[in-house]
Structures are given as C-alpha cells and as structure tokens.
Write a structure and sequence with these properties.
Elements (H helix, E strand, L loop, with lengths): L8 H7 L7 E7 L3 H10 L5 E6 L6 H7 L3 E4 L5 H10 L5 E4 L4 E3 L1 H12 L5 E10 L2 E2 L8 E8 L3 E3 L8 E3 L3 E3 L4 E3 L5 H21 L6 H18 L6 H33 L1
Parallel strand pairs: 1-2, 1-4, 2-3, 6-11, 6-12
Antiparallel strand pairs: 4-8, 5-12, 6-7, 6-8, 9-10
Helix pairs in contact: 2-3, 6-8, 7-8
C-alpha cells in the first residue's frame, strides 16, 4: 500500500477482501485544498491515488502528496479530456474516478471491494447523493444520480466533452449499492455562476454536434423538466432545497437553448 496506509490503514484491512484486482483512484483538481482531505481519506481502500492538478495556487498538490497521493501536474484540457488523461496516468487496469468534492461512503467502498474480488462486468455504476442547501437530496434530479465511475480502462473511457462529460463503454455495466456522496461546499451564488458557465459550454457543444435550438424547445424543455423531476420523480419530498435544485435545472435548460438561439442568429448574420 505504500504511503496510502497513512490515511486509513485500519479501514483498508476492515473492508478489503482477501484478494481482489488492484485498483487506482483518479481525480482532477484545481484549487481544491478545502475539500481534498476528506475525499482522499475515503479512498484509502484503493491501491493508489492519482491526482492530476492544473496549477492550483492553494496548496492542493502539496496536500495531496502529504496524504499519500501521486500528483501529476498538467495543463487544463476540458473536463472529459482531463479525466481521460488522469485515467491514463494510473498504474492499474481498474480505475475509480471521483471529484474532489465527493466522498466514497463506507458502504460503497465495501461494495467496490467485493465486486473487484471477482469482477463479472467491465464497468460499474452506483448512485450519487447530492448535498444542496444543507440537505442530501433523495428524490427528483438529485437522487439516484447514477454515475458510471468504476471501470477497466481498456473497456471504457471518458468522452471528449468539455462539460457534462460521461464514460463511454460497450460492455455490460453492473450496479453497486452504497452512495457516492457529493458534498459541494460552494455557496448558492458560486453554484449559479458555475451553472452559467456550464450552459455556455453546453450550448457551444450542442451546435458543434449539429443540433439546433427552436422556440418550442426553449419553452417546453424547462416545463417538461419540472414535471418530470418535481412530480414524477417526487422532488417535492426534498422540501425547499429540492424545489430550488429543480428550478435551477429548468433555468439551465432555458439558458442553454437561449444561448444556442443567440449563437445561431449571430452565425446567420455573419453569413449574410
């Protein structure tokens, strides 16, 4: 285990089966020092932890090394490409991909260890539980936020998307119990600012893929989204945080199509 023993040796012994395939945890960081320690401690059952840092100025890289991770410095490529680069830096075939503001729950760690004792699939997904406005969301858009994060790197890979990246694979994907806890400490103001940046990237990516926005999509997409997540997926059971979370998602849908329409209009004007 090397230096990883410093961040939870007793826990590793408690949850790891007698034999399993080696596992690398990989994550990308930028100024994540305030969240990183809890994340890395939750990964203590892994055989190595690889942190790909993009020039943090808050001591993220130094903290990661202190906690036993192997740090690779690399320029920013966009979320999908950066995560795939991190996967390529792992020493083991099996990788577990997490973000700095996520924690692997003990139940999920045990499920991962058990699955890798005798893998029956080339990739696995598990529910992600999102904390928003001080509450873990258990319904609506917030849960179960199924996330494919555990896979053999010769059987799956991250997409090249600059935002809303996803793992691509053609193998059978298994389901694991136990939650990946997403515990972002950012303020609502910061969260809204990030969503604004994401919708800009999403609009640009959609147009590059040949998709087009219409007035109908601009109006109906947010409405259908609200009906789906607030009523059909019972987001109302998460109280005010659930309502706010879903409404922001509806706003994001509106903003993406509005930005696409604006870009389409600019492109049409330039062609004249």
């Amino acid at each position: 285990m090397g230096r990883l023993g410093r961040i939870g040796e007793s826990r590793i012994i408690a949850i790891m089966p007698n034999a399993r395939v080696p596992l690398s945890a990989v994550l990308i960081t930028l100024n994540a020092a305030s969240q990183l320690a809890d994340c890395l401690r939750s990964l203590a059952f892994c055989d190595e932890i690889v942190v790909v840092d993009s020039g943090s100025g808050d001591g993220t890289a130094e903290l990661a090394e202190q906690l036993g991770a192997r740090v690779v410095e690399s320029e920013w490529r966009g979320f999908g490409l950066q995560k795939q680069f991190a996967v390529s830096q792992a020493r083991n075939d099996w990788v577990l991909c997490v973000d700095a503001d996520e924690r692997v729950s003990p139940q999920l760690a045990a499920a991962i260890a058990a699955a890798l004792a005798a893998p029956t699939c080339g990739a696995y997904r598990f529910p992600r539980c999102n904390r928003f406005m001080g509450r873990y969301l258990r319904h609506g858009e917030g849960y179960p936020d199924w996330s494919l994060r555990l896979f053999r790197r010769d059987r799956a890979r991250w997409s090249d998307d600059a935002v809303h990246e996803k793992v691509l694979t053609e193998v059978v994907v298994g389901d694991l119990c136990g939650d990946l806890l997403h515990d972002s400490a950012e303020s609502l103001d910061s969260y809204l600012g990030k969503q604004n940046r994401y919708t800009t990237l999403a609009a640009e990516a959609a147009l590059k893929q040949g998709r087009r926005a219409t007035a109908g999509k601009l109006l109906l997409s947010p409405l259908f989204r609200f009906i789906k997540f607030y009523f059909l997926r019972r987001g109302f059971l998460d109280g005010l945080p659930g309502l706010v979370h879903i409404l922001i998602g509806c706003q994001n849908s509106f903003a993406k199509y509005a930005k696409m329409l604006a870009l389409q209009a600019t492109s049409a004007k330039n062609r004249q």
